[in-house]
Amino acid sequence: MTSISPEQLWSRAEQSSTVTKILQWPLVRSIVAVLFLAVVIMTHNVVTIYGLERIPEPYFNFILNAESILVFLGLMWVYRQYTRIVEKRKALEISTNRSLAETLSGFTVGGGLVTLQVGLMAILGYYRVESTAPTITLLHALFTFGMGALVQEFFFRGIVFRNLEEMLGSWGAMAAIALIFGAVHLGNENATMWTSLALIFADILLTATYMLTRRLWMVWGLHMGWNFMQDGVFGMPNSGITSLKSWITSAVEGPAWITGGSFGIEASYLAIGLSVLVALVLLRMVISQGKIVRPCWVRNRASSG
Question: Measuring CA to CA, which of 14, 46, 63, 135 is 20 to 30 A from 245?
Answer without folding.
Answer: 46
